Amino acid sequence: MAFIKLACWLLLLVSIKSVAASVPLTDSTGRLSIGQWVEYVEDSTYQLSLSDVRSRLYRNRFISTHQKAPNFGFRNAAFWFRFSVRNLSRDSLWVFEQALRGMGQIEVYVIDPGGRVLPQWGGDFIYSRKQQLASAGYAFLLRVGQGKVATVYVRMVPYGGQAFFPMYLSTLFVYKQHDQLAVLLWGIYYGLLLTGFLYHLLLWMFTRQTAYAYLSLYLATYFLFEINRGLSPAQQYLWPGLRWLIQNGLNLFFTVTLLAFVNFYSYVFGFRLESKRAKISTALIAGYIICLWLLLFFVPGLSRNFIAICQFLPTAGFLVVVGFRKLRAGHIYTHFYLYSLICFIGGGVLFSINRAGILPGDDFAVHYTGNLGSILEIILMSFGVAFALRQEQRNTIYFSEKARTAFTEGRAEELNLVALRLHHEAGNNLLLLLKTIERLSPDQPISGQTIKMLYSQAFDSYSMVRNWAYSATPETLLNQGLAIALQKLIDRANQTETVSFLLLITGDEDKLPLKVQFELYYVCVELVNNIIKHAQATEASLYVCIQQNLVITECRDDGIGFIQPVGSSAGGMGLDTIRKRLTRIGGTYETHRLRDRGMKVVVQIPLSDQPILTGK
């Protein structure tokens, strides 16, 4: 029994010693973290006043934090802190500092040995009116006489749901040195973000490259997000006193930043262009980000920082998976974007677990991991975009030369075909016309039947030459693509006023490999010529569509028609030319007689084996 009493007395003495322990302030004290001397009471009602916490009811409810930087994770509550200081130095003016911003209201009460209460106020909601010192955090002057002991009560109300309180005591000189260093570092960081935004914006204005536009948008939104944390210049200078923006600005701009973040990475990874499923996945991630932000307005008591982490981690994980998929698929320069993403995520994760209280500490490496990760991300993103666009320019030059080579070869082949037609068809007509004229005698009158025959032969020759003229390879095919070239082909065909043509295209024809564009254009020329010359049709249509990895071209007319057996080598020069051109690109064609009148030709060209050489 005596042993139990002795133990109880020892515990009581220890507790009294811990409560009575004061922060020693000496001449050698620099910037002292006071978390281990601080006791706290959590006020979830936000109603406790100074007289309440000094009353007998709450006097013994204060709990020691036992942390260098008190961190209670994600909480929505007000916190009262109590500590005492013993001034053993020659300096009577000290500074109390709460180093982390995001506090709506801070009340500091210094109680001197005579019981007099000296109040001070600060925080983002009343910053411009009451706080005595401008600071990277929140700073308050403490006047403690030499050899005196003072008790300090501090009430803090965080508005982001983040209960993290790195508190320091220092002399005014040491405080100013540290504060100037913090302002310098944050100023450099803000300057880097703003410079990166302006630089890439100028690059977009001069190059009109979409990647630069999306990167500029991301950096602009990220800059707006960052000025709402850190030094919080937005709360101090842009919208001081606007409580809604002060309280919700950080989450608002973080949500917008995440949307721009997803937009940029899904574009540079080429994920949105993969399939309809990829577009839906991207839209779902964006919807998830927005819905979590809206929860803050419909579910009271949610921690804003916790919601931000829930937005960030799944989104980042989704993009990492996409990045690794693209890297394994061999996409050039994906590693730049993937490494930048990993740097940003790594900094964000370390920063988040520190704020959640899992990784304690308030030193430079932990406090600025998010900033360091962001800087590395921006550098790697810039390299990735620059190298990717440089490679794209090289490919453009290479493909342009290849396109011109293909154009020259196609032009030469078309000229050979025109020469053969001139020899076989137009030459034959002109020879008949010449022989008919030779049989005429200048002494004999020319009959009307002879004149009609001569006119018919001359008109046939003229029609042939005119048809070949508009079917020759236009410059439009090389400069403006297949869709416009086909439209002009049909326009010229309609000028013959013999057959009325209708063209149906999707607009995606210009994305086909250049070789396919050239050969398909010539195939359409042959189909149109055959209808004009042989079908005796009044109406015809040409339809081109792209279905996944297959190009389907369908040509219909209401003429007399004929059947060309599949795989047969029979037929005239036009069908033989079509067969040869399709063989070069792995295509096939079929002919079908329509039930009422006319015929249909269906051309199919697979794209899976074609070289990737697209664009105008």
Give a short overview:
The chain has 616 residues and is an alpha+beta fold.
Low-confidence stretches: 6-20, 565-571, 610-616
Largest sheet descriptor:
7 strands, mixed
The CATH H-level homologous superfamily of the largest domain: Rhodopsin 7-helix transmembrane proteins
Distance between the termini: 97 Å
CATH topology of the largest domain: Rhopdopsin 7-helix transmembrane proteins
Report the count of strand segments: 18
User: Which range best describes the helical content: under 10%, 10-25%, 25-40%, 40-55%, 55-70% or over 70%?
Assistant: 40-55%
CATH class of the largest domain: Mainly Alpha
Overall pLDDT metric = 80
What proportion of the residues form beta strands (DSSP E)? 15-25%
Radius of gyration: 41 Å
Shape: rod-shaped
Indicate the structural class: alpha+beta
GO molecular function: protein histidine kinase activity
Protein name: histidine kinase
EC number: 2.7.13.3
Transmembrane segments: 183-204, 211-229, 249-268, 280-299, 305-324, 336-353, 365-389
